[in-house]
User: What shape does this take?
Amino acid sequence: MKLLLQHRILIGYIILIAVIGSMAAIMFYERNRVKYRNAYFSNLERRTDNRYRLQP
Assistant: This one.
């Protein structure tokens, strides 16, 4: 089956946009995970610090 050059270029652009879109989605997802992890460890560190301050 022969495809016209225009169709090949269009298919290539569609694939490229799909790949870039999925990479952006992964980056946003990972950024949110890092943000959550940092907040969790910051909270954990604060609790541990308070626990040691309260001990006589």
The mean pLDDT is 88. Residues 22-56 form one domain. The helical segments are 5-54. The two ends are 82 Å apart (CA to CA).
